[in-house]
Fold this protein.
Amino acid sequence: MLIAKKDQNTGKSLGTGRRKSAVARARISAGTGKISVNGRELTEYFPNIQDQNAIVLTLESVGVRNTMDVDITCNGGGSTGQSGAAKMALARALVGFDEAHFPKMRDEGFLTRDSRMKERKKYGLRGARRGIQFSKR
């Protein structure tokens, strides 16, 4: 199954990931393990440890943490949505870089789209499900 393709001229692989309303594009190439998100360091862009681990765990699961340079572009959504989208984009890019990573990425669940979305507000209600406050008197 071909998810992303490696560019033969530059040696880079591109992957796209989505979660909630966030979209991320990850471009990876052989290097020293540098990770940048929207032109900033990973720890600077995602101060939350949970968001950082989502990205680092994807690289560590196939053992390429210190051998790949990663450049991620995120937009839309919040920090958790962006980190989830970046995790999926990175997994797709890794599979495009080397097809041997596919079984590990699939088994870890990195290639599965998280389909949970915000439920829409309904008319006559204060939110998606919350009704108006009832007053007896």
